[in-house]
Amino acid sequence: MSGTEGTPPVEAPIAAVVFDVGRVLVEWDLRCLFGKLIDDPDQLEWFVTHVVSEEWHFQHDAGRELAEMVAERKLAFPDHAALIDAYATRFGETIPGPVEGSHELLERLAARGVPLYAITNFASPFWAEFRPTQAPFAHFRDVVVSGDEKLAKPDARIFELAARRFGHEPAAMLFIDDNVANVTAARALGWQVHHFRDAATLEADLLARGLL
């Protein structure tokens, strides 16, 4: 069974565990913010599909300047200018809390002395605001942030950069991500991978690998 579909066969010993952040350690959904601002469910879905969408937001994760993006979007959708401004000023409200069980696994790995790192697609200014609110992230020895590097997963270059920064060979690191494209990209570069679905499945994989 492949690593994208469940617990993979045990490969080389793991020297470090590398987490994604959004939807692995913390929940993320644009609807958590805009559901407070748009009453009609159909209008909400239209807005997060066509105006402030995940695809549009990805440009900021990849390093595009927020002010430029917002100004351009407001020209395209002038009737929604106030909502677009809310994206810029209230992004933290799109993150409602931790993924159930994931922080506990992070703490257990840290308690065992497992070297921990992260690679996250996260806009630089939003990360600067969010990171200090997350005490468990102090366990990370280093975090590669897409917005800082102007490289975003699944681009191979961000994984190559991370391997250099973290100081471990890809084959000796377990990369955990909810996005199958990111997992596939890491696997192609020689990383061991876990396609995240929930904490219970991840826990089983970590136990099978002798990490917990």
UniProtKB/TrEMBL annotation:
Entry keyword NAD: no
EC number of the protein: 3.8.1.2
Keywords (A to Z) from UniProt: Hydrolase
Domain of life: Bacteria
First-level EC class: hydrolase
Name of the molecule in the record: 2-haloacid dehalogenase
TM helices/strands, residue ranges: none
GO function terms (MF aspect): (S)-2-haloacid dehalogenase activity
Secreted keyword on record: no
